[in-house]
Design brief:
Number of strands: 13
Radius of gyration: 34 Å
Strand content: 25-35%
Distance between the termini: 81 Å
Number of helices: 8
Order of helices and strands: HHEEHHEEHEEEHHEEHEEEE
Length: 275
């Protein structure tokens, strides 16, 4: 090999090494913080881009607004039953129309509990047909009480062919025939809530679904009284504002039962619902 050819080959080799080094250097500079290959101590030029992405995410995150504010009025339990229905009831289906009696193979017991602020009265039967003591309990249960129904039964296991013990629990609020209503209607109640701008702004600061539950009584004059917090949102200011909102409510039309004006208890839930 000639001296001239040897020199030319060396030059080509040196140029190739320079090119490779340049490519490696550019690759290193282009690695992002999100890449799994990056060492914790490695230099990375993508920090600013990552911060920008966070800002963009915060800008696009849905903000709370009044249209998503949720409230609900109900008795102390979701399900309800009137005194008239209880007085005429002969079996479970008479007080709870959707009672799934066809699911049950064998009854163990059916326990009724009438729960008031002062006392709890219990009567137990053998099946879904009420006995004398259970019918007496139903007739004498006062308004606003909670009727707890606990059904113990056996259901055949399709795999083992044996009977397994099961239990079903129902809670119903005893309500008047004509329940108390906000005089301005639900639309008027929503307009009333809109006056509480401070409360709404407070709710908008919450990122997670949160709710406050308040119980109250509508007396015979249609006034709200005995207001108490039964479910906290976790924020003292929000809870206190919700209590003030209920205490300051305008007059209601009181409940009527058997032709007479009576008191009725309600639960007021305010906040943003979860999924």
């Amino acid at each position: 090999m000639s001296r001239k050819a040897l020199i030319l080959g060396s030059l080509v080799l040196v140029m190739g090494m320079v090119t490779i080094a340049s490519v490696v250097n550019r690759t290193k500079n282009n690695v992002t913080c999100e890449s799994p290959e990056v060492d914790k101590n490695a230099e990375c030029n993508s920090t600013e881009e990552y911060k920008i992405d966070i800002v963009k995410a915060e800008e696009t995150k849905p903000k709370r607004n009044y249209s998503s504010l949720w409230f609900n009025l109900r008795g102390l339990q979701t399900r309800s039953v009137t005194q008239l229905e209880m007085g005429e009831a002969k079996e479970l289906n008479d007080i709870y129309k959707n009672y799934p009696k066809n699911w049950i193979d064998k009854y163990v017991s059916v326990q009724l509990s009438a729960i008031t602020k002062e006392d709890t009265i219990v009567a137990t039967g053998l099946n879904n047909i009420f006995n004398t003591s259970q019918r007496e309990l139903l007739v004498n249960t006062p308004l606003n009480a909670i009727l707890n129904v606990r059904v113990s039964y056996l259901m055949k296991n399709s795999i083992t062919e044996k009977y397994d013990s099961q239990e079903m629990v129902l809670n119903l609020t005893v309500v008047p025939e004509h329940q108390a209503v906000f005089k301005r209607g639900m639309a008027g109640l929503q307009d009333y809530m809109k006056q509480y701008d401070t409360l709404i702004r407070t709710l908008e600061n919450f990122e997670d679904p949160t709710q406050t539950r308040v119980w109250f009584t509508v007396n015979k004059q249609g006034e709200v009284e005995d207001v108490r917090l039964t479910g906290t949102s976790g924020d003292t200011y929000l809870d206190e504002t919700a209590l003030r909102l209920v205490r300051d409510m305008p007059l209601w039309s009181p409940a009527i039962n058997n032709g007479q004006v009576v008191e009725q208890e309600y639960e007021f839930t305010l906040g943003f619902p979860g999924c």
